[in-house]
Amino acid sequence: MEVAKVLDPFVDTSNQPIISVVIHPLALLNVSEHWMRLKLILNSVNAVAYGGLLGKHKGRDVEIHNTFEMVVDDMVIDSDYLVDRVERVRQLYKGLDVIGWYTNGKSLTEENKTFHFQFTEKYECPYILILDPLDKTCERLPFRLYESGIDSLSRVYFKQVTFKVGNDPIESIGIDLLARVADVAKVTPDTGINNVTNVPGTSNVVPHENSWKLNEVSETAETLQENHQAVQMLSNRLNVLRDYVDAVMRGELPVNHARLREIRALLVRLPHAVSSNGPFGDNTNHSGYDLEDQTVLLRQASDVCLTSLLAGLTRTMHSLHGWLNREKTVSVFQDSIGKFGVVTAQRGKCFRNPPKVITNAFEDDVMSS
User: Fold this and answer.
1) What's the rounded Cα separation, in Å, for the pair 277 and 83?
2) Span 65-88, average pLDDT
3) What are phi and psi of 58, to 5 degrees?
4) Is the separation of the CB atoms in 279 and 287 below 8 Å?
5) Best exposed site among 132, 208, 271, 284 by fewest CB in 10 Å?
């Protein structure tokens, strides 16, 4: 998928070499999720997110795979946090390096340029990815990518570049599932008519004869949706029955014994357990379960709790056993030192009463092993 370039009047686009940039969906999703999280925390659409771009840069071929977040306070980067985070990220993602940073906004601003100069003091990264979360045109992805460089006159320029969204087979599975479940553009299977509201100033696009297939939902998502709807419907019906019984008990509605018997028969079928006092506060078992069934359910719950307790006890015994073994090993070495002395590697001498430093060194070696 290629994203069209939108000209920025503040960016130089003249006589610059062409590059090939591929951004993976994970990076785009991370940037969107970061801004959305800040928006919910601050309860404001003016939230600004900052982070770094991880990828590969080979000549004029650039590939952005992932991102990481940065701590920025009043347009000042937390250098210690940034250096520590980059080192950890490099250890985690072998082969990826910092090639740029991201933020959100309409376009590249003077503040972004100042921040870019501050960021490049730590890492040489020419790329800036900007998310426009308030873009509602839906004609393209709300992302813009900029490249910085130095021209022949030693002037710093910023150029907007096009990029493609590429993904590997593993990413395709997750992205395809998200695209289907999101159900952004619903298409009626019968007629193939697009249900998206027409945007003023745009022409109607005739859908492909098989375009309704794009709206397919995975089997897992479809099953979960059906189960959710069924449980929700059951809950609503039970609330109606509860309100009816409450109204009868308050005398607001006449007593209908046939209807109450049907309600009781339904409650008997529901898989629930009650206390010995019953759900109505008396000593009668109104649930339809006999004491044997309730005993089985309680026994199963007790077995689960007992299994968890035994697992915790086993972990505790394992830790205690390891500690005792280490203590025993240290004690054996101390006895050996007292009886036979210690032969030092530097001088080749034997000490009957070794210095305390040598004893501590042996203890440290044993404890570390």
Assistant:
1) 64
2) 86
3) -125, 100
4) yes
5) 271
pLDDT given at position 31: 92
Instruction: Give the separation between CA 51 and CA 30, rounded to whole angstroms.
Output: 10
Helix-strand-coil split of the chain, %, nearest 5: 45, 15, 35
At 274, the pLDDT band (50, 70, 90 cuts) reads very low
Tokens of 104: 């959100």
What pLDDT does 280 receive?
44
**Predicted confidence band of residue 286 (pLDDT cuts 50, 70, 90):** very low
- Residue 194 is given by DSSP the state B
Could you give phi then psi for residue 20, rounded to 5 degrees? Answer: -115, 115
| Alpha-helix residue ranges (DSSP H) falling in the chain | 25-42, 79-92, 110-120, 169-182, 219-249, 257-269, 291-340, 356-368
Domains of the chain, start order = 20-165 (3.40.140.10)
Reported confidence tier of residue 339, pLDDT bands at 50, 70, 90: low
Six-digit token string for 95: 């082969």
Query: Given the structure tokens 């015994």, which residue do they identify?
Result: 317
Max mean pLDDT range (92-106, 134-148, 157-171): 92-106
Token duo for residue 142: 């709300």
Instruction: For residue 176, give both structure tokens.
Output: 């395809």
Task: Report in angstroms the alpha-carbon separations of 157 from 110, 117, 153, 235.
Answer: 12, 12, 11, 62
